[in-house]
Amino acid sequence: MKLLVTGGAGYVGSVVTRLLLDAGHEVVVLDDLRTGHADAVPRGATLVTAGLADAARVLTPGSGFDAVLHFAGLIAAGESMVRPEIYWDVNVVGSLALLHAARAAGVPRMVYSSTAAVYGNPARIPVPETAPTAPTNTYGATKLAFDHALTSEVHAYGLAAVSLRYFNVCGALVRDDAMIGERHDPETHLIPIALEVAAGRRPHLEVFGDDYDTPDGTCVRDYIHVADLAAAHLLALDAATPKEHRVYNLGNGNGFSNLQVVDAVRAVTGHPVPVRVSPRRGGDPAALVASSVLARRELGWTPARPALHDMIGDAWAYLRR
Ligand SMILES: NC(=O)c1ccc[n+]([C@@H]2O[C@H](COP(=O)([O-])OP(=O)(O)OC[C@H]3O[C@@H](n4cnc5c(N)ncnc54)[C@H](O)[C@@H]3O)[C@@H](O)[C@H]2O)c1
Ligand SMILES: O=c1ccn([C@@H]2O[C@H](COP(=O)(O)OP(=O)(O)O[C@H]3O[C@H](CO)[C@H](O)[C@H](O)[C@H]3O)[C@@H](O)[C@H]2O)c(=O)[nH]1
């Protein structure tokens, strides 16, 4: 297939691009490099350095794209509470421009990076796709808004859409021919920050809040290896069906508290990770754990690296590359 990957210079998008190229697809990456890196775009893909607002420059009538995989966006839940306007602008206004361009170009399929953050504080865990959506942060609200836009598009124009709701992505693609991992600057995610502390690049880790209603008082998350997540995108592309908006949660179904993650980082690296407890970060849900039964059943998705220690080990290998 001929595929447009938005955000293909970012963490998840670059790993998915690698797998798409391996599978023999033709890939064009659209990325304005605001948080991504040109050298993260795997060899074999064509990079167009442009924003979502200019998607019509690539998605021209007659361009012949078979699908768009839409990763581009702003991703930091904490930042979204203090700079909400940029989240609405990029994640909603930008994504709508992409959708308009895709419609005008006659693209039949779209696979979208949605998020666990759409569920807010779920009433029960693990969270199925049928759980009510009630985001606690602006990031989740903006991602959910575009999920709704996709549903409308499917009903009105017959698009084949799949929203993949990732839980917490970590790890790296570690292969002899490809080493791709997380390179956010500044980094905001727990595992890469804890690894930077283990590597001696930061003095300590701030743990945001220890007074949540969880077993040890710190937030609980469900971590998924980026390579397993990437594999689900190829399955979603095949499963996309005209006039259907499918939604799948992607996680391993195991919750780890922030302090348990820190312990795992200490165990994997063999280095100390000093911790300081600081106040809660605005907008953080207490606990998010996925039910991915539907993805396993309908997509045939089976995670190959579900163990937290393996994910941390691969992220550690990437950091020390
Ligand atoms: N990383 C996670 O844990 C996680 C969890 C759930 C969902 N997601 C979703 O997955 C997607 C990818 O996340 P990631 O971790 O790879 O993020 P990332 O920041 O590494 O990658 C995002 C990419 O999008 C590009 N981009 C941003 N705004 C753009 C715009 N307006 N026009 C063109 N390019 C633009 C950036 O330059 C970057 O290369 C996002 O949509 C995010 O919401 C991520
Ligand atoms: O220095 C840090 C960084 C994070 N945390 C805590 O670690 C947990 C996980 O935080 P992350 O920032 O790593 O991840 P989030 O759960 O906030 O969000 C991530 O996963 C979501 C889905 O669950 C999203 O989609 C989002 O894009 C992605 O950033 C939270 O309790 C956070 O407060 C710390 O204590 N200290």
TrEMBL record:
Domain NAD-dependent epimerase/dehydratase: 4-251
Keyword Isomerase among record annotations: yes
Enzymatic reactions: UDP-alpha-D-glucose = UDP-alpha-D-galactose
InterPro entries, per database record: Epimerase_deHydtase, NAD(P)-bd_dom_sf, UDP_G4E
Cofactor(s), names only, from the UniProt record: NAD(+)
Enzyme category, top tier: isomerase
One example of a Gene Ontology biological process annotation: galactose catabolic process via UDP-galactose, Leloir pathway
The EC number(s) this enzyme carries: 5.1.3.2
Gene Ontology MF annotations: UDP-glucose 4-epimerase activity
UniProt entry keywords in alphabetical sequence: Carbohydrate metabolism, Isomerase, NAD
Pathways involved: Carbohydrate metabolism; galactose metabolism
Family: Belongs to the NAD(P)-dependent epimerase/dehydratase family.
Name used for this protein in its record: UDP-glucose 4-epimerase
Taxonomic lineage from the root: Bacteria, Bacillati, Actinomycetota, Actinomycetes, Micromonosporales
